[in-house]
Amino acid sequence: MTGSISPTWDQLKEAFVVFHNDYQIVGHPGEPTVSPFDEPREYGKYSLTQIPDLMTEKEFESQMVSMKMILITCMDKRVARKIWESENGASGEVFLLAIGRGVVQNRERLKAVEVIAGYLAQFHWLREVVASDHEHVCGAVRYFLANAGLSHEDGLPGLLGKPPGSEEEREIMNRLIAHGAQPWIQEFGDDKVVAKDAYVNESERDVQEFLIQITDLKPLSIEQLEHEMQAELIGKAAALRS
């Protein structure tokens, strides 16, 4: 879609390496990774996508021939398997990109996503790209905001002072997802990209997906959210001192 030269095979592999330590973020270093052409691990186990070390470019391209969809989602143990199943993953036609924080990434990691999207865009027979992330149990916002000094054990709901699944949380997550979907829209066009927000019901071991109308939202980056929350906290502190 961009008209630029597609990233090379080596650049694609380097982009995947950006996420190879994501298991450490959730305290599970050394867990098995999964190929983008395989199914996620069972419910209750994290599923990080990595290109197999010995896979060649020709092998990768031959596997892509049967792919019809790209699914970007979080590697979370409660999410990856459920969303893969809901997107008809059993058909064997889904290219899985399951990484820490799913489609919601900070600026540095988003550059790697742009390379992956640019490389995959050459496979013109792909029919759909599903860009998703999930709400309150996701460590995405909690992890990134903690790096900016905005830490709360309950993540975004705690920072907002709202219960999990609130309208305020959903609005922010939807805008973050809309921002994270932009590299895919740029490469595949908005007619092929579907954005979804997933709500995790842990008691029933289930995930509900909600379609997001990207055109109705103002995309929000992690960096913008950090700035807005820092400004809000400074404003509250100033009010208390006055």
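(ticket continues) Second input and output from the same batch:
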Amino acid sequence: MSKTRYDFDHAKLEGVDKNIEISLKEYGIAWLEDKENYFFYYGSKYDDSLGEFIRFNSGWFSKSISLKKEFSWITDKDWKKVESFCDIFWEMSFMHQINTLYCFYGPENVFGTSSWEGFTFEEVISGDDETHRKRR
């Protein structure tokens, strides 16, 4: 079953830094999880003058996926490059593996292409947005 961001408890938002604002604005990635899925926010628009991400898109992965099957376009030779980029790659949590792939290959290759402007930082943190409020 496909999940949306509204199905996750945003009070449990985590990232690569303990400070979620740093995780999103500086590193451009944060995540939520439930029993079956991982839900990610990733930076989609970077403001050079501020030196931070200002817009975020989202994507999710089922906990039952195989990383090598999901990213079957990555060749064995390229997996070796990922492993040399991060030598503990296969020992990390799935969320940190996705973060590594995000850093190595970029958001489009990990989460797909999106032409949508994305959520603001405040919309990510609150788990709410203008479109969602209009539907309620």
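Agent notes: The chain has one domain: 5-135. The longest strand covers residues 37-47. Closing as not reproducible unless the customer responds.
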